[in-house]
Queue: 4 jobs
Job 1
Amino acid sequence: MAKWDQLTKAIGDLEEKKVMKILNKFVATNPSDKEVQEVIDACHKGMARVGDSFERGDYFVGDLIFSGEVLSEALDLLKPILKNDTSAKTGKILLGTVHGDLHDIGKNIFKSMASAAGFEVYDIGIDQSVGAFVNKVREVQPDIVGMSGVLTVALEAMKHTVDGLKEAGLRNDIKIILGGNPVTKEACQYIGGDAYTTNAAEGVRICRGWIK
């Protein structure tokens, strides 16, 4: 068994008290930055297990939200003891629900999981115009733009947003991931996205793959 498999398993099993017990004991050893980073990686592996459990139907939406809270608590404990900021954010994600759609549950779950996975997430909210996305991309210069929508009308809004980013000369500098039940492989190609998902855990995995 690898050194931190127990921690990975505890996060994957949503055992909050066990996770914090392991981490508090670890922090008390005055670990090196390398050791802290190893523990952070083990935490992220645990989160991947949560995502796998969700995909199998063993976990539900509430479990995903709780796992994000546990991981955030874990990282908040670890980051202050890093002497060098090797825990720097994985990357930047700009996130928003497109114009004409007011749904945000899926977006918020993805936001929670992406933040817990180390991403710096900028959430511009619901019913966001093309201009709102374009202006925020210019401002924060994200690595990834996530567009969410549940209504079928959101598909055209997503396409307009991607077209707007192209017209602004910003499209080539970012990856675009689309989320929501209406989004299919064909719709993603039509809209001009790089990937799509209806699963927050899978979405985070895709984003981590892009940054690596």
Job 2
Amino acid sequence: MLFRGAFVHCPSLGVVEMLSDHLLGKAGFIVHFAPATTEHSENLIAHSSVRPVIIPSGNFIMPTFCDLHLHAPQYLYQGTGLHLPLMTWLNEYAFKAEERLDNDPALARTVYERLAQRLLESGTGAVLLFGTIKEATNLILAEVLQEKGLRGFVGKLSMDISSRPTYQEPSAHASLSAVHSFVESCQHMVSHLPEHERLIQPVITPRFVPTCSDELLLGLGEMAESRSLWVQSHLAEAHDQVEWVKRERGVDDIHVFERNHLLTSRTIQAHCTFLDPPSLSHLVSRGTAVAHCPLSNAYFSAKPFPLREALANNVKVGLGTDIAGGYSIDIMNAMRQAVTVSRMREGHRIVAMTETDGDGAPHEVNLSIDWKESLFLATRGGAVALELAGRFEVGAPFDAQQIAIFDPSCADGIGGIDFFGEIPSLDMDLLEKWWCLGDHRNRRCVWVQGKVVFEQR
């Protein structure tokens, strides 16, 4: 199949390429991508058995979003309980909801089917998920994602310590056995499919240090290493959690993960708000990525993530919604929140500098990011963390979404985007307007591995 029209992607941080009148050829993968007027493109069009799909004026195709941190069972109570501190919130809401789904397979399937649909409506094509502690419930989640065509990295929670006695695994040995069984079952679920159609992968998932014994963490690290598995957890997230780890383990949680072989090039750690510069450098040395969740950090962390410092240090960073610690499932909101928080950090830096030396000049690195950088984090940044492409290039999976900003037939914008007078051409100003004001109404179609998984009706 051939598509002809405008394409947008972010090949590197801060760079947005708008490629007008390009031709993209795809099956499950991209087999051609070049200006439509090149000789090769014209030959493809001439010899194709079907005419190219023309992307209408006012529309463009861009990569799907990657969500690097989401608690699937917590979608059950999305948008509630956010007045509480983290450790209390976990006891009052999170553990109860997860236990409820573990005890009700029918409810779990209903919640996960709705979650998958909402993610696709929001343009998310790949998602890294925390599940529950029960193997069967996580297999339901994996099955739903595969059926819906959503690229899913699924983590069965490991936790042999809990403040809720009814929601924990009986021992480190039992937890490790359950993880081994889940990994085997998850991989077997898709083993009959061609490799490129296997959309789900199991992920080693110690919830965080307060819920995992050293014995369990070491066993998980050895399993991840021996089987080249993905790892996800929470790192240096909230003040009460950080202090708990220091008090109980005697060191920061980054050192606990390190000594148990859980900081790898296939590890994604959520939050990391309390990491200092040497710790960020340590993540770089291990190839570990960060899932930046600005909304949930505002609720549950006493400080924001040092995003600019991490990017300047070449830390791999993508965005996460952190449902239900964050209330919005839409990565577009995570992009906007990332920019907002960074601008507040930069303002605080300038004010603090002015108050101390009377000079507000930017002697240090500007801590704010702009919309272009956030778009990179939402697409290419998250994709790199998951060893995906996140941009248009030959050989990459065709994971894409079609965005409609205006309708030239009626000379008006789409969704919440309005125009007064002549509608402008598709340019960077118009892209920024969509970034600020766009929502699900602008999303016409979503493809994952070349297949339509969502279409606006």
Job 3
Amino acid sequence: MGFREKYARLGERYDALEKPLERFFCPLRKRAAEFVKGKVLEVGVGVGKMLPYYPPDIELHAVDAVPEMVRIAERRAEELGLNANFYVMDAEKLEFPSGSFDTVLSSFVFCTVPNPERAMAEIHRVLKPGGRAIFLEHTKSDCRLLNWLFLKPLDLLLGVLLDDNTLRETHVLARKYFEIEHEESHYRGIVRLIVARKPGEQSKAFKDRGA
């Protein structure tokens, strides 16, 4: 059983599963949303945990590979009065033209996607030159002891439950594709917020506007 089937079976119970972590994650989601502008794509929207934090002046598009999760996110957007477009779509194969978005955001997604390199390349492709990529992700800790005592057992458990891999180095992968503007390490690197740019002609214009 792959991650799609596992997340589909969880459905709305995913909220309950993650609830003990919300006091740690919610401030970071709010922080990540501060960096979005313009036409925005959220990759891996899940049940819509990022939705309450987006500014009202963006054009939001959101994708997830699990139809059951997309339906929950759509309902949450309606409850919030948020105008957004939702699609069932794989992160590794985004069905948008190249250079479609000003911002692409992923929140706790790269621990789950089967092929993170391909997903990163797709995010790079659909961003406009000078566009911003934002990653709020589980990553391998800076502390080797913490990796062995906490993340490795958690990785085994979540691997069985959700096909998650909490020991991935998404922060390293992002550097292969983007210019890193800002990086925050939280809880000894167990979670990182990475703000990056796609190199291109618009990069200077974005910086000049203070975007």
Job 4
Amino acid sequence: MATKGKDFAGLSVALVTPFKQGEVDYDTFGAQIEFQIEAGTTCLVPVGTTGESPTLSHDEHDRVIDFVVQKAAGRIKVMPGVGSNSTAEALRLTKSAEKAGADAALQVAPYYNKPTQEGFYQHFKALAEETGLQQCVYNIPGRTGKNVEPETIARLAELENITMVKEATGQMDQASQILGTTNLTLLSGDDSMTLPYMAVGGEGVISVVGNIVPRDMIALVNAAASGDMAAARAQHHKLFALCREMLGLATNPIPLKAAMEMLGRDTGEMRLPMTPLDDAGRVQLKQSLTAYGLL
């Protein structure tokens, strides 16, 4: 049984959305896209959690996707976040991304309203059947409030356009069950879990830390994919502290935006209710970036 979604194996980067004086900073955004293309990243993932999608208007959301697709110009894949807790709204966002020329759609599990497993199935089924894009089911119960169970993902895998799952439960057993019962491409939703997931059959990561060190994440993924586990472990341990800080100092993307500001690649500006990293966190982050060799 051939693996679906295999063309998205490797490093995908969950892009930040740069802001300047309250507006999307498209000049900085364009530079970030070029940075990823030059690094050899497989896919750009705009307007996800890392891209602060909950604070973007629908018009901004559509415009960001259109901008990324146009800037990518076929040189790199684009899989925007288009999920919602409303199936009708997710469908509108997905159709808009499809019209813009996106290559796939990242669909976060409906959040807050906590559907049943049948509700999850019918939601993703509608999105898969009513649009032509490849669909990546994004399972992150720590944010959405409820797990999409492996049995539900197995049912969804029977649908032609559902080709990937972004696994952000942190549960190795769940990943193993999905990989053992489906032909989906499994992508890690946590940087620090990339190697463990790939060890059981995952094929890459949708990365946060890839915003700043894409080449190092690519080296990890490529080593694991080629079976060079010694090299993959070395990269994992090199990246581990940085990965943990990107997600551990404060809610994503607060530490990442602070890091990118320190590196001169972003203003660091966020939209409420997201607030900047506190002083103690900035000191710790600066020490980590210095120790890594980035500052």
